[in-house]
Amino acid sequence: MRVAWSGLFTWLEATNDMNKMMSNKWIITAYMMPALLLLGAIVYVPIFLTAYYGLHKWNGIQAMEFLGLANYKTLLGDRAFWSSAYHSLLLAVFSCLSLIGYLIISLVLASRIKGAQLLRKIYLIPMLLSSVAIAQLWLKIYHPSNGLLNVFLERLGFADTPAWLAEPSLVLGAIFVPILWQYAGFYILIYYAALKGVPKEVEEAATIDGASAWQMAWRIKVPLISEVLKVTVVLAAVGSLKYFDLIYVMTNGGPNGASEVMASYMYRIAFKSFDFGYASAVSFFLLLICLIVTWLIRRATASDDKIQYS
Amino acid sequence: MALVAAGCSNSSNGNGGGEAGGNTQAEGGKQGANEAVTISFMHLWPEGVSAAQSKVVSEIVKQYEDESGVTIKMEVLDNEQYKNKLKVLSTSNSLPDVGVTWSAGFLQPYVEGKLFAPLDDVLGDGLGDQFVAGTTDAFAIEGSTYGLPLEFNIAPIYYNTEIFANHNLTPPTTYEELLNVVQTLADQGVTPIALGNKDRWTGSLWYMYLADRIAGQELFSKALAGEESYMQDSLLQAAGEVQHLVDLNAFNKGFNGLSNDEGKADFYNEQAAMYLMGTWELANFTANPDIPQEFKDKVGFFKFPVVSGGKGDSNSWVGGPGVGLFVAENSPVKDEAKAFVKYFVEKWGEKSVTDAGVIPATKVDTASLELPQLYADLFNEMNQASSITLYADVQLEAEAAEVHLNQIQALFGKETTPEQFSEAHEQAINK
To answer: Do B4 and A291 touch (CB under 8 A)?
Structure first.
């Protein structure tokens, strides 16, 4: 086979048809078609359908009733939705802030310390666990009377340990901990890989010039992986905005919506209240919010840096 | 942009992907030409979760297959997954021939969408008389019955007789006595009541009884149906009493964030004295081999006490039919399915109490069966019941039921006042 292919290319080159082939629009289209069709059918068509369903009232069983933009108008005035949007936003902000912590951990790991190999593997473990398993684990930790956390606090002398998942003022913070813990390994791994890509010569030059560890990290390594940093900020922000798993399993939206996020709110409207039209409107709105946030982040972090080692 | 689209699409896929999954069940119902009739039957008693019920179902199905030559193709799902799948199948109109449904508010959209077949002909054949009065009503919409109930439950307060004896307490008959019991136990450091209110319906049982005892069954039912205003003093008082119980520390710590299973653990490991739950729990107190016998021997029950000055009497229960069987309207083997359903209900009524510990909706001849004492006592109570109020989250329409459940959680968590509670109901019911 290989001989046949190389023979073909040699013949094409010889006849100068190779260039014609590569710049032939039909060939390019043919190569792109399968992936485009798949993406279109699985991703783009449902997005448009969701926007379309958002214009109707539908309980999933009976016929759909066209409502125009009424669902979207209700959405703008829906306090429960905006409260859940606020919680999603808080999660996004904390996720992005926690990236700083992950970066520091990666910087330490990447500088050849003892046990870096082992530590890397340990940090990665939460990412390998299923969301439901993590939720069950943390439910046991947060249990008001027998949970690890409260028993530990009682041993330390705190008499009145709070019920972490039942108090509306505490539940959101309590849930953020396992969510951030879940993805720590993912970001640490990305940063570690990016830092490993920084060429040794640059580091050695900086050492010769007398850079301290701090200067090395802050002035040399971090700027050289800034593209990766920007991508992870977008990932963290958008991933948090549409986050669902732990919220659903641990509190199902919390005491009366105290830990509701946009995705769990949409799920509740669709599958508990059976209002698929309104849920589609919420879903599409969530997509719009994600797009806007992404655009804002790219704008805010745009720069003209040309040298990248990631 | 592609990154964002790929990242955000998961939220919108939830709606689009559900429909694709619905078509897989269609094959089961479409067979059934002449010789080999196949009936597709979907139920919610998986072996791992409801072993006893699952066994009874399998036995009845096998018996029917042997006697009639029909093949039954079963599909079993867990409770929540069952609800989801039923929803998905209904959107593509490919329901199984026979399936399980709940009553009232759950049933209504399916009936309005003409997805369930009326079963009046099956009832008229003598089967109707075998049902306990009122159980089929919950499955009837505008005069036609669309489901045949399999379960019937009421909700007593189970209590630990040993804990009561240790603190010199007797089962209360009035609400003041109950408050006294709660106070005594709380002072001694024992959790009075086990409750897991994360799923919200458990707290709803407490509220419903208080509303029933204070406002009276008739007024409460009318208020839930929207025929009377929800802003009645008696209903405000009921909501207030709930918060009074919370103030007395009557419930286990952190109850508003614990699921029912986590909450009832306190009752099962004897750290809480009382537990309000339906008679479906009886199987755990009598037959379940995993529960230690010494605990089972300590469990008793009493009726929810009367409130002085209230209009409800002690023989009024919160409860109602549990699940029932439906036949799909577009089933190609409708007649065979109806025959199967009739057979199933009859055989289930004979076996369910002794083999599964489930109380069927058909009348049970307690004299001829050897039943544990708890069952016999509760059957007596059911026969003397003056009225049965169906659970609010089943009675109300889906959206109003969600509002009710959320309000219950807010009420128990002291996040709302009784006035706001009633107002939210008023708005949701009359929407």
So the answer is: yes
Contacts of A270 in chain B (CB under 8 A): 14-15
- Paired with B75 in beta bridges are B42
Predicted confidence at residue B59, as pLDDT, reads 92
Option in B4, B199, B256 nearest A290 (CB): B4
Distance CA A44, CA A244 (A): 21
Alpha helices per DSSP H over B113-174: 120-122, 128-130, 161-166
The secondary structure of residue A158, as a DSSP letter, is -
Does the beta-carbon distance from B12 to A283 stay under 8 Å?
yes
Residue of B nearest to A170 (CA): B257
Q: How far apart are CA B147 and CA B141, in angstroms?
A: 10
**Is pLDDT at B187 greater than 70 in this prediction?**
yes
Tabulate helix, strand, coil % of chain A (nearest 5): 75, 0, 25
C-alpha B204/C-alpha B238 separation (Å) is 12
* Superfamily for the B154-319+389-429 domain: Periplasmic binding protein-like II (3.40.190.10)
Does 3.40.190.10 match the CATH number of domain B34-151+322-364?
A: yes
In tens, the pLDDT along A49-68 reads: 999 999 988 877 777 888 88
Q: Which residues, in sequence order, are CB contacts of B298 under 8 Å at separation 6+?
A: B160, B161, B162, B270
Q: How many C-beta neighbours within 10 Å does residue B9 have? A: 21
CA dist A275 and A269 (Å) reads 6
Label each residue of A99-113 as H, E or C: HHHHHHHHHHHHCCC
Nearest to B160 by CA among B278, B284, B299: B299
When scoring A61, A71, A241, A287 by the number of chain B Cβ atoms within 10 A, the one with the most, hence best to mutate, is A61
Got the DSSP string for B277-345?
Answer: --GGGHHHHHT-TTS-HHHHHHEEEEPPPBPTT-S--TTEEEEEE--EEEEBTT-TTHHHHHHHHHHHH
Residue, of A5 and A250, whose pLDDT is higher: A250
**B34-151+322-364 and B154-319+389-429 agree in CATH topology:** yes
Pairwise CB contact (< 8 Å): A163 & B254: yes
| Helix/strand/coil for B357 | coil
Chain B nearest-CA residue for A267: B14
Task: Please give the pLDDT value at position A309.
Answer: 54
Show the tokens assigned to B62.
């096998």
Structure tokens given for B144: 């036609």
CB contact under 8 A, B258 and A145: no
Report yes or no: A51 and A285 within 8 Å, Cβ to Cβ. Answer: no
Query: Does B199 sit within 8 Å of A166, measured CB to CB?
Result: no
Mean pLDDT across chain B: 84
Q: What pLDDT band is residue A22 in, cutting at 50, 70 and 90?
A: low
Q: Which CATH code for domain A70-300? A: 1.10.3720.10
Q: Measure in Å the smallest separation between the Cα of B257 and chain A Cα atoms.
A: 4
B45: its two tokens: 């008693």
- Residue A268 near residue A276, CB atoms below 8 Å: no
Q: Which ipTM did the prediction report?
A: 0.75
Rounded Cα–Cα distance for residues B137 and B103 (Å): 9
**Residue A229 neighbours by CB distance under 10 Å:** 19
pTM: 0.80
Cβ separation A286–B406 shorter than 8 A: no
Mention every residue, 6+ apart, whose C-beta is less than 8 A from residue B125.
B342
Domain with CATH 1.10.3720.10 in chain A: 70-300
- Tell me the per-residue pLDDT of B117-176, one tens digit each, with 9 for 90 and over: 999 988 887 788 888 777 888 888 888 999 999 988 899 999 999 999 999 999 999 999
